[in-house]
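subagent[fold] <- orchestrator: predict structure for attached chain, return tokens only, no commentary.
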Amino acid sequence: TRYLPPEDYGGYFYTLSLMALARISLSPGFEKIIPGYSSKNKTDIVHTVNFMSIRYGLIGSCLLIIYALIFENNDELRLMLFLGSVFFIPYFLFQRVFQIMVGEEKFYEIFKSRIIISLTLLIVNYNSLAIFHVNIVSYFLINILTVIILNFLVYWHYFLKNLQTDVIFHKIIPVETQK
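subagent[fold] -> orchestrator:
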């Protein structure tokens, strides 16, 4: 907090709180079933849940844009809300990798991944604020993209590399199948 002025610090968490409110559209009540169905290897249900979440998540992205256009007067906050709406779905959807890992009973891997992600975020955030003195919009974008990239790398490492199966791939990134 000593590297951000109070108005930037408040604006950053204000934007994240609006994204968290819009997250309700991304998980309309069925997010909790992912670990159970993942452990039973029912990938078609997990696939359907994630695909529906992407569809409903578009509503949340639109709500963030509408809120930014109508209610927000501060240009930096408006820009952060626009950026948040663009990266909204991957930001929250790739975090589901940990729910799938719970279903696969990979608790040690979850622990390691969370520690690595937290330390990386700490280093990236400190460097962007203390060393490079970026503005709040750049800090917000760096933080969002770092979370997306790290969660995707965890997903890729533990599911695509270690398990070597295409079935797991469809658990987090739904792909329409042709019938």
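orchestrator: received. Logging for downstream: The CA atoms of residues 91 and 145 lie 8 Å apart. Residues 163-168 have pLDDT under 50 and may be disordered.
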